[in-house]
Specification:
143 residues, 4-stranded mixed beta sheet, alpha/beta, two-stranded antiparallel sheet, 30% helix
């Protein structure tokens, strides 16, 4: 049950908000193999002065069109989180025309017992949603 927050500077269209959200969700479906309906996103439409950043960090120039994506989910291996970033960045470039340099992803990992939603059923052996395939759970690709 990943939870996603997307921080954008005001001035972007509702269609842009939706395109960013869809790119993130489709990337999670691909990399984490989450169900289609496992979808919880909040878009924060921020005043330009409320997102402060250095114009160059890690030696790369960033623009005022940068997006901050904060995700909360259960623990994942580092390689899987890297694959998620790459999938999101690729989709955002393809669907919105954003620059890869303007995508910032931050992850907050939490224990499975910290998630609650009516109707959610957790497999006590894996700690993941019972709708996830056993193969994906064993490989650490879900949740």
């Amino acid at each position: 049950m990943p939870f996603v927050e997307i921080y954008l500077r005001k001035g972007k269209s509702p269609e842009f908000h939706k395109a960013v959200s869809e790119a993130v969700h489709e990337s999670m479906r691909e990399v984490f193999q989450i169900p289609e309906d496992d979808f919880f996103h909040v878009v924060h439409d921020m005043e330009p002065s409320d997102i402060l950043q250095a114009p160059t960090f890690f030696g790369v120039e960033r623009s005022a069109d940068s997006v901050i994506i904060r995700m909360t989910f259960n623990h994942r291996p580092p390689a899987q989180k890297t694959a998620l970033f790459e999938a999101i960045a690729d989709r955002l470039v393809a669907t919105t025309g954003m620059r890869r340099e303007d995508v910032l992803l931050t992850v907050l990992e939490t224990a499975a017992e910290n998630w609650w939603a009516q109707g959610r059923s957790i497999d006590p052996e894996t700690g993941f949603d019972t709708r996830m395939s056993p193969e994906a759970v064993r490989a650490g690709r879900v949740g």
